[in-house]
Amino acid sequence: MAITKTKINAEDFRVGEREEISLAKWPTRVPTVYTTKEQYKAMLRKHVHEIAALQDVLYASDRYALLLIFQGMDAAGKDSVIKHVMSGINPQGCQAYSFKQPSEEELDHDFLWRVVRRLPQRGRIGIFNRSHYEEVLVVRVHPEILMNERLPKELLNPETIWTARYRSIVEFEEHLYRSGTRTLKFYLHLSKEEQRRRFLKRLEEPEKNWKFSMSDIKERKFWRNYMEAYEACINATSSGNAPWYIIPADDKANVRLLVSEIVHNTLRELKLAYPRPDRSRLKELKSIRKRLEREE
Asked: Of the chain's two ends, which shows fewer C-beta atoms within 10 Å, N or C?
């Protein structure tokens, strides 16, 4: 992928259905969509305001739900982009969840069970910080985790299990689409060197020390394995109704603007409108108005 223009269309980062991408050829840094820090702030402020307005209509119309999935290596900026892009959203219309290691109860169910329980209601925006995709990413990189998932032995064939899980995910996301949930999947594509710099920064700033653990360093040894897992996963599960967007993540400000543009465009394309009252409702409202006016 080669992008040289200054103004970047966020759709440039969408992975097409059945498109075979190579992450090694996909940039982790591109020309910024802003020229100054002040312009970045103004652009983000505009996006946030517009998303908030559209979310209000989404909530009122109560027909669609929007699910945002964020995946990426440690320090890719998932928390940051969620915090900034969704900063204007009414909390009543938003449901955010961060997926950690599966609990004992979750391990006694199929791998999609725990995410189904956290899906957004109609009229709401759901945010997944990590998701069901961990089951074809970290579990694939560390097959010992799979051995502890209590699956029947005949299902543990490494030649078929990942293809089977990809199929389950694609069918699940198609079901969501048919039920009115629009799904956007963002892979924040960070370079290994930028991750190293961010880790060092976390160590230098006391207020960020809590974000760092030795396990983060250990996972860097599996960088190539993770890139192979992400590549296979994205190629197998990006669809027309639940697309993957590979967002170059070495510049956090650029990430926020690209993601906010995609979210805004998706909501706008739903062509939502506030519910219009029918005759009986108008009659009821007229009656209410008269009662309130008589109280004066």
From this structure: C
